[in-house]
Amino acid sequence: MTGTTPGTTHAATHAATPGTTHGTTHGTTHAATHTATHAATRTTLGPCEDPVTTEDLTPQQAGKLAREVLAEIERAVVGKPEALELVMLGVLAGGHVLIEDLPGLGKTLLARSFATTLGLEFRRIQFTPDLLPSDVSGAPFYDQRSGEMVFRPGPVFTNLLLADEINRTPPKTQAALLEAMAEAQVSIDGTTRRLPDPFTVIATANPIEYDGTYALPEAQLDRFLLRVRMGYLDAESEALMLRARIDRAAPEAVLRPLADPAAVLAMRAAVERVEVADDLVRYVMDLIGATRSHPQIQVGASPRGGLALVQLGRARAMLDDRDYLTPEDVKAVAVPALAHRVSLKPELWVRQVSADEVLTALVAEVPTPQTLPGVPLGQGSTAAAVPAS
Amino acid sequence: MTGSNVWTARAEARSDAPPSPPGAAPGPEPAPDDRRTLRAALTLAAVVGLAFAALMLRPATGLFSTGGAPLGRSSGWVAVLGIGWAIVVGTLSRDYRAAVRHLSGLTPRAERLTSVAAWLLLTFAVVLPITALGIVNAHHRSVPPDLAVRAPAMKLPGAPRPPSGGGHATTGNVVAVVLALLVLAFAVLVGRLLLTAFRGRRRTRHPAPVPSRVLDEQEQLAAAVGSGRQALLGTDARAAVIACYAAMEESLAASGVARRVADSPSDLLARAAALGQLPTAAGTALTALFHEARYSHHPMGSPELERARAALDTIARHLAPAQPAEGVC
After folding, report:
1. Average pLDDT for chain A
2. Domain residues for A308?
């Protein structure tokens, strides 16, 4: 599957006929057909050996499963381990991911690979300028047989939604999706409908094209847990990717599902068991505070940014086979978690300084927790305190 | 053992071996040699040219004697020179600040010197031109206009030179001060270049050419490793592992790889490993143990202590090959 051709009808046509299949949404693609048979009732995971129940995963077990999933995805998405890891952190931390980069870098493939390997139901919306909110969330239509208005769920009712080129649609339609992202529910005609759990959006945006695009406002960008940039492959990896394609004799590698929605929820629950020391809470606060007082930043990170930083850091700790957060975790996710939440001063736009660069410099300046344990959070005492055994 | 023991162990290490400056000279890391030579040559040419011009403009007088220079009464020229001075020294000051901003591993004394040098450069860039302009303007105001106009007409060939006024003396003093400052700046530059060259040569040699300095470092290293081992003898495994890691940090600082404020333990480890200052496996092991002790509530016991001790031993052997490993406890 190429992920780009099944539906070519534009929104204007199917908006008038809501009862038909949405032209720009690719329905449940074969990623979901892989997983349709092992949806929520499955209780054991792993390819064959060492089955792990999904009811109560420890951070180590969840981390092991997540690493297996990543290894499987790397068979299809070659040479991008950092981007894959960041997307995985977003899924584990229970957030939504914005992938911002040029076309042709494998964004769609990445999202589809995650859906397949995690065993999630997958849908895709190609955002176009004429897409309507009802094309995203669904709309009631008149059933002639029963003579009643029946709600037809939109593509947002899925586990993993790929919102392709989200900045190509007007703000009204963007808002329909972003509301669903924030609340995990859709309200239509006075009825609130819950979205499936887990519900994750992987949105893509083209950062350099301005014609016919509607940039996401800061408030909406803030809804994304992290922003990932993929970038070009280095020459060696690109050659490897081409060689793999030639050897495979097929457009894409066929991936095995290694998890299911229940397992994803169990992994998310395991993230909550990763402990966070007071010093690291203070460090996160320092980072957030530094974005608010930085001379090159006009609007700093929101409190939601601090939450994102902590959750992504915990997910990274879990992926690294630990059940405690370290400064390395926070530093590693600081730029992806915060860069899209800050607004730079206008003079920096002229100098083409990106938020990523400013945030990278900021992270390199904010002091990390000192080697010896400091005072507990919220106390002014100077006595040294070693964590209790 | 509680956290206070950790502090005590660290304080002992500090009191036993006061930190010696790894590089006393404040200044940037050595730039490429060709650029440095070019800059030095340009500076030298500028200083010599200025001194020569000063002498040529004052043919009838000595270098530091009072008298009137051809441009001495033109405040416009003084202003132009002042602006030029401010631009040159201001640029120098900016470059210097940019170069020293990311320096690490400086001793407190070196940091103070760096800071003072940066402020002095900035002050010189602004204060000197303003002062010179102020003095010249004051001189113009103090000389009556008619006298100033008539003075050249009254001068006869072969006649004794009229006694110069206080304003002339002031202008001469300003020129002398500027020249003195230029000479001083030149001397500082040459000194820095020599010191940098000396440090670079010393770094390339394998055996220690300055025994006293290396002995200081080794003493500090021994003290740090010793304090770490003493901490490992305690009963509180968590505090012991943290103290042991602190000892490793101090050992690295003594070897010239100090922790920066924004460094995570892994950052420090990567820098030390890149410089060949640390055996990677032992450093990674000790860092992982430190992470667990510092940021988790896991129970820790003798196995962790043994691993920390082994890692510290490996690091101590690597950092100081000449130091007998068992003699430091």
Report:
1. 79
2. 274-363
Which residue type sits at B100? V
Candidate CATH numbers 3.40.50, 1.10.1740, 1.20.120, 1.10.287; the one for domain B3-23+211-327: 1.20.120
Tens of pLDDT, residues B48-65: 888 777 777 665 555 555
Boundary-marking domain end, from A269, A288, A307: A269
ipTM over 0.85: no
Contact (CB<8Å) A386/B6: yes
pLDDT at A60 over 60: yes
Q: Output phi, psi for A160, to 5 deg.
A: -130, 120
pLDDT of residue A87: 93
Kindly provide the b/e burial profile for residues A357-378, where b requires at least 16 CB atoms within 10 angstroms of the residue's own CB: ebbeebbeebebbebbbbeeee
**What end-to-end distance do the CA atoms of chain B give, in Å?**
18
pLDDT of residue A41: 34
Interface of A with B (CB under 8 A): 275, 277, 279-280, 322-328, 331, 363-369, 371-373, 383-389
Q: Which of A207, A225, A245 is nearest to A79 (CA)?
A: A245
Task: Say if A371 falls within a structural domain.
Answer: no
What is the least distance, in Å, from the CA of B36 to any CA of chain A?
28
- Domain ranges in chain B are 3-23+211-327, 33-204
| Range of weakest confidence among B133-137, B164-168, B171-175 | B164-168
